[in-house]
Amino acid sequence: MPELATYQSFSVEVSDYIAHVQFSRPEALNSMNKAFWLELPRCMQDIEANTDARVIVISSTGKHFSAGMDLGVFSDPKSVPMSGDPGRMAENLRRVVLQLQDTLTSLEQVRLPVLAAVHGGCIGGALDLICAADSRYCTDDAYFTIKETELGMTADVGTLQRLPKLMPQGVVRELAYTGRKLSAGEAKSLGFVNEVYDDQEAMLEGVMTVARQIAANSPLAVTGCKEMLNYSRDHSVEDSLKYMATWQAGMFRPGDMMKTFQAKAQKQIPEYEGLFPVKDLFSE
User: Which InterPro entries match (predicted)?
Assistant: First the structure.
């Protein structure tokens, strides 16, 4: 595999088909600074293009998972001008917000399942981030909050759009209107997180077990599942069934099924080919 890029905001380690992305700014409570917003989509692309990973695990370091958006992102006059024509300022801010949204959407666009392992506070923009993951797990001390409301603004990079698809509308509205903390136990009871663990070590062990189970399956089958689930979330059942039929007609091949049957007959673990790496068409 080519050597992975290095990042200011997190470390990346790939082993046994699992890419572990770990936030690495605990001294700043892993706040999402300008570098973070630029680096996350590049990291997802790097993992797809340059590793054999079949699943991504996102975790963190220090006391909290992440304190959310670093307000310094909006204090750079080069990115967010604070003076000039109001119409042009508004158009520029809209583009900035769209870029921030695209950063988190990269977790959905990557072909690999993304598992979020949360400890401590998951605040503001960090909640936006994990809403874009495929599955969420947390420690008993974890909590989640739509902090933007308390700061006098409306959350704008994904929580209000994704969270209502993950838990009851009434609860989401309460969380959004009040900014209160959602505890780990309540998040589990609502189905927002898959499992709650006593501590971070136990959580990572549990999440890596899930990741290994995913990585053991056919990568083509798994990416097909993610594609279909994301599509069905945003489309009608009828449209989703039609898309499923089209996908199956184009992507299904019996090779992986035959490997599965042969391995089971021989009481062995099947070995599947990886997906072709996602490459920039114009890269060297």
Answer: ClpP/crotonase-like_dom_sf (IPR029045), Ech1-like (IPR045002), Enoyl-CoA_hydra/iso (IPR001753), Enoyl-CoA_hydra_C (IPR014748)
Q: Which of 117, 134, 158 is nearest to 225 (CA)?
A: 134
Average pLDDT over residues 238-263: 89
CA distances from 69 to 90, 166, 167, 196, 202 (A): 20, 22, 23, 25, 28
Class of domain 10-215: alpha beta
CA 198 to CA 203: how far, in whole Å?
7
Looking at residues 125-143, what average pLDDT do you find? 98
Query: Could you tell me the fold of the domain covering 219-265?
Result: Lyase 2-enoyl-coa Hydratase; Chain  A, domain 2 (1.10.12)
Q: In degrees rounded to 5, what are phi and psi of residue 123?
A: -115, 135
Predicted local distance difference test score (pLDDT) of residue 1: 55
For residue 192, count other CB atoms closer than 10 A to its CB: 21
Question: Residue 87: CB partners within 8 Å, gap ≥ 6?
Answer: none
- Same fold for the pair 10-215 and 219-265: no
For the chain, the structural domain boundaries read: 10-215, 219-265
- pTM given for the model: 0.94
* Element housing 204 (H / E): helix 200-215
| Through-space distance between the first and last CA atoms of the chain, rounded to whole angstroms | 16
Say whether 263 sits in a helix, a strand or coil.
helix
Residue 284 has pLDDT above 60, yes or no: no
Contact 197, 206 (CB under 8 A): yes
Sole residue written with tokens 């947390």: 138
* Residue 22: pLDDT band with limits 50, 70, 90: very high
